[in-house]
């Protein structure tokens, strides 16, 4: 299992992005958290297999319908 942080930027607050991220985690059999940051980004942390994490990142780029993701900073965690 790999633990990973995704810092998601763009129009990602006030559009249901955190709930979307949690649903995607659940659909992929993963657990984690998603919180709004004061700078407008969403901090998403989860763990999974490399394949799960790749699929999850693809979903984050899509986001919910009202979101517009402009960037994702990805960091592996210890």
Number of strands: 4
Summarize the amount of helix as a percent range.
Answer: 25-40%
CATH C-level class is Alpha Beta
Unreliable sequence segments: none
Shape: globular
How many helical stretches? Answer: 2
Distance between the termini: 11 Å
Beta percentage is: 35-45%
Which SSEs are present, and which pair or pack?
Elements lengths: L1 E10 L5 H11 L3 E6 L5 E7 L1 H13 L5 E10 L1
Antiparallel strand pairs: 1-3, 1-4, 2-3
Walkthrough of the structure:
The chain is α+β, with helices and mostly antiparallel strands and 78 residues long. It has one domain (2-77): Alpha-Beta Plaits (2-Layer Sandwich), CATH 3.30.70.100. The chain is 31% helix and 42% strand. It is built from 2 helices and 4 strands, in the order βαββαβ. The protein has helices at 17-27, 50-62; strands spanning 2-11, 31-36, 42-48, 68-77. It has a 4-stranded antiparallel sheet, with helices on one face. β2 and β3 form a beta hairpin. It is globular, with a radius of gyration of 11 Å.
Characteristics of this structure?
single chain, 78 residues, alpha+beta, Alpha-Beta Plaits, 4-stranded antiparallel β-sheet, 31% helix, 42% strand, globular
Briefly summarize what is shown.
This protein has 78 residues and is an alpha+beta fold. The chain contains two helices and four strands.
């Amino acid at each position: 299992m790999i633990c990973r942080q995704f810092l998601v930027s763009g129009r990602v607050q006030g559009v249901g992005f955190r709930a979307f991220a949690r649903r995607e985690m659940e659909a992929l059999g993963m657990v984690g958290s998603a919180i709004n940051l004061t700078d407008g980004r969403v901090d998403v942390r989860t763990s999974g297999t490399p394949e799960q994490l790749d699929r999850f990142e693809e979903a984050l780029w899509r986001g919910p319908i009202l979101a517009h993701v402009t960037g994702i900073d990805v960091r592996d965690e210890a």
